[in-house]
Amino acid sequence: MSKVIDPEMLGDMRRFGDLDVSACFSCGTCTAICPLADNDATFPRRIIRLAQVGLKDELLSSKELWTCYHCGLCSDSCPQDADPGEFMAAARRYAVASYDRTGLARILYTRPAIGSVLAVVIAAFFAVFLYSGRGPQNTEEMEFFTFIPDNMIHWTGIAVMVLMAVAGVAGVVTMVRGVARRDGVTFTSLVSGRTALTRTGAALWSALGVESLGQTRYRRDCKDDEPVEPLYRRRWLIHAMAIWGFLGLMVATGLDWGLALIGVKETGTAIPIWYPSRLIGTIAGLMLIYGVMWFMINRATKYNRAASISTGSDWLLLILLMITGVSGFVIEAALYMPNPPSWGYWMFLFHVAIALELMLLLPFTKFAHAIYRPVALFFYSLAGKKVLQDA
């Protein structure tokens, strides 16, 4: 691991959040009170120290950076008011921008005015491009995929997902190389022998199933707002609603295309509520809107430590998610109206353009933590299982 010191690093990180850890004298209070810190995750103390001395490569290769859920206990207990919780949030934004080779993430995080204009331009580009291939508007029956051909949407979506995958994989590879080098993990050590495969499989399950989807430690250990907060507003539940809602909509979209592929229905046509694609999509859409709504309320009111400081990129993600969810229900309402309204077609065009933008920007906004956090949790779990194995 490189030990090159970057004296400008801490100053650069300040562009990603309202942080000031110059007062931190590494007393260790933040680590002592953190419910997630253990022998292999001495954050945020260690991460702060890396930033103070300018060890950029060390910081970017720290899996602990992504295991923090920003509960705020460390900031509340800091005797110097250094706000280590916000520092960790800013460090994650800085990491996303550092893993990204295009520079787009840095623009979205540090230049909100330009980022907002760019977001509008991208959405407009998709809308105009799709509109260029438009067909007639059926006034007797709502036919979205006659207005905008399904093949056009399909191949545009494929192109967007390829771009998203290339950018996401490039960032993950950069991250993985650093973390693996620091932890001494090699591909051979992951797959050589039954024991290694078992340990790797268990780490994957822990990272993806137990933590990313089940949020076990988030629910069990990050209890900064319990039992004061009612269940409906607890941070882990809001987070879970947004995650499962988004994933559910992806599943519903896939099922809808699948049903059309096997001839059960035509793509985009009305179906009864009990059909799997519609039922899952309705429930998932409500979950997504619920989670995003509370995220927006908390940030607008600076309700807690995690929501006290927001960047333009944070708001961009929430706005795109909310528009996607709400416009989906508006489209569904238009689809089931007895007399198809003409505005339904334009809402459909708007919905698809925003959905494509949301996917395209995934590796560059806060949405990127959906990629990087599971990878970091995998290495974190792997380290814990390796310790147990060695013991």
The CA-CA distance between the termini, in Å, is 26 Å
Shape: globular
Helices and strands, in order, run as HHHHHHHHHHHHHHHHHH
- In the predicted model, the low-confidence regions spanning at least 5 consecutive residues are 387-391
Mean pLDDT: 86
Classification by helices and strands: mainly alpha
What number of domains?
Answer: 2
> How much of the sequence is in beta strands?
under 5%
Largest beta-sheet details: none
- C-alpha-based Rg, rounded: 23 Å
- Helical residue percent band: 55-70%
Question: Could you explain the architecture of this structure?
Answer:
With 391 residues, this protein is mainly α. It has two domains: 9-99, Alpha-helical ferredoxin (Fumarate Reductase Iron-sulfur Protein, Chain B, domain 2, Orthogonal Bundle); 104-390, no CATH class. It is built from 18 helices and no strands. It has helices spanning 9-13, 29-33, 45-53, 56-60, 73-77, 84-99, 104-110, 112-131, 144-147, 150-183, 187-191, 194-213, 216-220, 235-261, 276-301, 312-336, 343-360, 369-390. It is globular and about 70 Å long. The two termini are 26 Å apart.
